[in-house]
Backbone:
């Protein structure tokens, strides 16, 4: 299958291209390099620089390379930033999906795999320990809304022109390639494990804990951290799932295990053998107290066996990458 990966120069996109390449070498990457890095695109992959919101560019790329499936990563993804810049988030993420799906219709693309997020659930399921795909949708920020609206657009396209889809709701993606060749390069990163790794390497003086008064066991936010290469594997399985004629569907991507901010910091301290200076701060706007996946569905339907379901592997690979 000829596959287009948008955002393939980004963190999750580039790790996915690397893993996908082994079974599907026919890959084209589209990226505007606004946050991605050209050098993150694995060798031998065709690169077309451009913006997913440019319809003519997208159609031209899809037709020129006879693309059959799109894995659509390209998006803005910082929760606090989305609260300050909602228009930019809806433009990039939601309007971006409108253009990508219009281009799919124009070029006859059959399949799309979409990067969605656990942020679609917000805080509405505080009474349950694990959220499943039918849990209440209630985003707390424009980022989550932009992704949920995109899911709906993609689903509606199937009836209209037969676009088959898998929406993957990522929980908290972290870590780096186990071979040490790739990792998170994001500038001004805000994600916990990245920031904690920077602090452990001495690139930052310390770390803020946003909220110590949540109704969680130690008062700090709880998340389900998934290793970036396990998530990359899920995209390969999603393609297989669609190519085998299965129905379009939405899946949680997490391990079904939650760690608090304090537990994550302790794990980074353990693997790095470094003490991290922490400062307790007020809650960060737009954050949920706890978000842990019920990932039974994806494990069953994709026959997925995560290979790196271990917070220390996640933190070790993230720290080693940062240190290098
Ligand atoms: C959010 C989304 C997630 C999405 C990701 C993409 C929610 C609930 N989740 O992750 O689905 O895939 O963005 O960008 O919207 N924290 C600190 N100090 C820091 C950084 C973070 O205490 O310096 C805490 C946060 O308050 C939170 C946890 O660590 O409790 C994780 O935060 P972060 O790594 O930023 O990711 P999310 O916001 O959970």
Residues:
């Amino acid at each position: 299958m000829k596959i287009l990966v948008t955002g393939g120069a980004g963190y999750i996109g580039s790790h996915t291209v690397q893993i996908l390449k082994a079974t599907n070498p026919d890959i084209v990457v589209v990226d505007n390099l606004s946050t991605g890095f050209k050098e993150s695109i694995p060798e031998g992959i065709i690169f077309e620089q451009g913006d997913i919101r440019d319809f003519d560019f997208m159609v031209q790329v899809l037709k020129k390379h006879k693309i059959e499936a799109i894995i659509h990563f390209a998006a803005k993804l910082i929760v606090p930033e989305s609260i300050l810049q909602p228009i930019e988030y809806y433009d990039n993420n939601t309007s971006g999906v409108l253009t990508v799906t219009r281009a799919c219709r124009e070029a006859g693309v059959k399949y799309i795999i979409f990067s969605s997020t656990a942020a679609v659930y917000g805080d509405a399921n505080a009474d349950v320990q694990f959220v499943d795909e039918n849990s209440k949708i209630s985003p707390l920020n424009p980022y989550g809304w932009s992704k949920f609206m995109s899911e709906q657009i993609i689903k509606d396209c199937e009836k209209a022109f037969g676009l088959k889809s898998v929406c993957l709701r990522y929980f908290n993606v972290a870590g780096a390639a186990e071979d040490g060749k790739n990792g998170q390069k994001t500038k001004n990163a805000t994600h916990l494990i990245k920031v904690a790794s920077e602090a452990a390497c001495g690139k930052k003086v310390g770390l803020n804990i946003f909220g110590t008064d949540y109704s969680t066991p130690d008062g700090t936010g709880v998340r389900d951290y998934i290793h970036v290469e396990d998530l990359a594997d899920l995209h390969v399985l999603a393609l297989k799932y669609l190519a085998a004629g299965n129905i379009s569907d939405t899946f949680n991507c997490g391990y079904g295990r939650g760690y608090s901010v304090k537990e994550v910091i302790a794990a980074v301290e353990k693997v790095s053998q470094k003490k991290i200076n922490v400062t307790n701060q007020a809650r960060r706007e737009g954050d949920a107290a706890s978000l842990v996946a019920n990932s039974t569905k994806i494990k069953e339907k994709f026959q997925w066996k995560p290979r790196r379901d271990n917070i220390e592997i996640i933190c070790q690979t993230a720290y080693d990458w940062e240190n290098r």
